[in-house]
UniProtKB/TrEMBL annotation:
<dbReference type="InterPro" id="IPR036188">
    <property type="entry name" value="FAD/NAD-bd_sf"/>
</dbReference>
<keyword id="KW-0472">Membrane</keyword>
<dbReference type="Pfam" id="PF06100">
    <property type="entry name" value="MCRA"/>
</dbReference>
<feature type="compositionally biased region" description="Basic and acidic residues">
    <location>
        <begin position="20"/>
        <end position="36"/>
    </location>
</feature>
<protein>
    <submittedName>
        <fullName>Oleate hydratase</fullName>
        <ecNumber>4.2.1.53</ecNumber>
    </submittedName>
</protein>
<feature type="transmembrane region" description="Helical">
    <location>
        <begin position="65"/>
        <end position="82"/>
    </location>
</feature>
<keyword id="KW-0812">Transmembrane</keyword>
<dbReference type="GO" id="GO:0050151">
    <property type="term" value="F:oleate hydratase activity"/>
</dbReference>
<keyword id="KW-0456">Lyase</keyword>
<feature type="region of interest" description="Disordered">
    <location>
        <begin position="19"/>
        <end position="48"/>
    </location>
</feature>
<dbReference type="InterPro" id="IPR010354">
    <property type="entry name" value="Oleate_hydratase"/>
</dbReference>
<keyword id="KW-1133">Transmembrane helix</keyword>
Amino acid sequence: MKDITKKFDKVLNASPYYNHVDHQPDANKDVVRNGPDRPMPYANQNGNYQRNKPVLAKSFENSKVYIIGSGIAGLSAAYYFLRDARIPGKNITFIEQLPIDGGSMDGSGNATDGYLIRGGREMDMTYENLWDMFQDIPAVELPEPYSVLDEYRLLNDNDSNYSKARLIHNKGEVKDFSKFGLSKKDQLALVKLLLKKKEDLDDLTITDYFSSTFLASNFWTFWRTMFAFEEWHSLLEFKLYMHRFLHDLDGLNDLSALVFPKYNQYDTFISPLRKFLTSKGVQLQLNTLVKDVDLEITDAGKVVKGLITVQDGKDVVISVTENDYVVVTTGSMTEDTSYGNNTTAPIKKVDNSTSGHSPGWKLWRNLAKKSVVFGKPEKFCSDIEKSAWESATLTCRPSAFVDKLKEYSVNDPYSGKTVTGGIITITDSNWLMSFTCNRQPHFPTQPDDVLVVWVYALFMDKDGNYVKKNMPECTGNEILAELCYHLGIEDKLDNVIENTIVRTSFMPYITSMFMPRAKGDRPAIVPDGCKNLGLIGQFVETNNDVVFTMESSVRTARVAVYQLLNLNKQVPDVYPSQYDIRHLLKATKALNDNQSFVGEGLLRKLLKGTYYEHILPGPHNPGAVEEEKKESFLSEQFNKFHEWMDGVRGKK
């Protein structure tokens, strides 16, 4: 590899930066300034400059790569091993305990037996790592040379997403969802939380900080149902979400900030990515459980020597050399999923005694026994009563339910365009039930007269309003009964049941990554001392990114590859909207229900007619006359004081 850079050797040999790159720069600590000691971009200085190909310090052609888990994080790791490390595809092997790839991003079934999607993904335009990858992955339906990103934008640029029925109550009546309803005290609490340091929030819950009035607001209903937060979840993660999605706050109530795929997440993302990887020679070994890692720990570091797997009921050890690399997906959001249908409930009761004992958590537990650098998995998988919820996938033929759905839809459900524009939440549901119908067809082979609707609920321990059971103990037909009751069509339940196939999924760990945590509970992506082992997924530490997103999974994979192989390339930090004065002002006004915030009138006066006039959000609010008068008075007194000071200084 030395021949490649020989024309640059005088510079590279004298450089303190070459082969000493900070692969995961931290925007929360980065001082934005230029100088002779700053040759590389700022932490979140996103853009095409970050698309450089790293010149390798050595060849990895003979290195083998073993990726444990074939979810989006694992698939992304393979992509970056291929693209940036140029490791031959034939040297990369996925080891997956399931009979199919994709991990938590599933999509299966048919119109006869019913479709199944355990969860969905709300996408954002600022997912820099995700779109970095998918701009290179061939499109699902467009011909060459188009990519998944090209296809995604073609659809979303021409079909806006928004909701006209974000909240409903009173048996199907659309509820006013135009306002967040935050008191001045609760707005101030959010601002103070943004100002707090992350290290001051270890192990705190949302209810440790916020008042009862905040938890009763529309804002919290929007937030908790969109992101699946519970009151006992991590305050730190809530804060990270506020920073990460600050630019979306004014679209939180009508979901207009979101972009959705044409099909389900498996057919949109997993399938084309897997096809691309296998076309490059990447191997996929299914039905193989990795239960432990043979890790040699010495003063010189931690080196993987082998993988202890279970294949066909027998222990099989896969040898690993120091020149090979192992990437492990720690934990699992969808491990131990229980399934039900129209006539069968997914579980009999929630049993917390089973927490964390399944194979998907065992590998991380075994790693944690070897060293404290591998974190504390028990913080996330020990209380399924607080990390579980249930979803249901409805395969719908025309019925009274479909007729009702049309009333809440922004376009005809059969038009191929945006339908509900995201989840519709039933605010007076004991289960806090939500449902959504994305663009149809949701599956490529779905018949024209079939709709696929997704339902989920956050409150697992409460009896329904109509069906006096908690949701996990209900059959699919009982869930339909509860839904029809809240839509005011319970008298047409027989018609709905006759034309609806229900498949339910109870997921005990679906929000486990939100559980309260402290520094050290989640391991670093490349834990201290590890020479050929990286950890990826939703249960590893990043500087400022959140969990439960495709972007965060891809980020962890990219960091793992760059850091393990010491590539001369960085992974930019999260999109910097939190530092953009335009988004800060826009968010401030949104939190105040688009009423003028303190100082807005003065700002408008100062900026009127200047280059920066446009940074203030929205039109002037005519309802803020009194606030304007106060600010005009203050401005007038300030100007008089300024004129007086000029006179004192002899400038007049």
